[in-house]
Amino acid sequence: MALLPILCYPDPKLHRVAKPVDGVDARIRTLVADMLETMYDAKGIGLAATQIDVHERLIVIDVSEERDAPLILINPELVWTSPETHINEEGCLSVPGIYDGVERFDAVHVRAGDEHGNTRTIEADGLLAVCIQHEMDHLLGKVFVEYLSPLKRNRIKKKMLKAQREDDR
Ligand code: NI
Predict the structure, then answer these.
(1) According to the model, what pLDDT value does residue 168 have?
(2) Separation of 146 CA from ligand 1 center, angstroms?
(3) What local confidence, expressed as pLDDT, does residue 95 receive?
(4) Is 135 a catalytic residue?
(5) Closest-CA residue to 74 (of 44, 54, 53, 104)
(6) 86 has which bridge partners?
(7) Strand partners, 112
(8) 29, 31, 127, 135: which is deepest, by most CB within 10 A?
C-alpha cells in the first residue's frame, strides 16, 4: 500500500471529468487500498480518484467514528434525491483549512459498484449523503468552493496559492 499525493485547489487537474472505471481488476483494487490509506492518513471522510490525479469514477468514503467502515463507490450514479435540501458546513482534503456552507439534498440513493465488482444501491442520509454528493462532484471536476460567491472563491484561491508558495520554499 502507498500514500498518494493529494492535488490542492486551484490545481486545474481537479477540474478534469472522470471516465467510467472499465472493470474491477488488480489495478483498481490496489488503487482502492491506496486511496483508503491516503484518506485515513489525511483524516478525511471521503476521497475521489480525481483528487489523486486519477480521472476515473472511483470514490472511497468512511463517515464512521471508529474509522472502520470503508465504503467503495465505483461508477456511482444518483438514482434518487430527496425534495428537501439543507446547507451543511463542508471541507475538502484538496482545500485544506477551508470550511463553508453548501446546499445539498438531505438524502440520496446511489447505485455503485464495490471492490468485488458487485453493483448495489445505497440509501444515504445525514453526513453520508453530503459526503457522497461532495465526492461525486469531484468526479465531474467540481470542487465545493465553486458553490461559494466569486468573492469568497477568489479569496480562497489566493490563500491556497500563497500557502503553496510558502510550502515550496
Ligand atoms: Ni473534497
Answers:
(1) 82
(2) 12
(3) 98
(4) yes
(5) 54
(6) 104
(7) 120
(8) 135
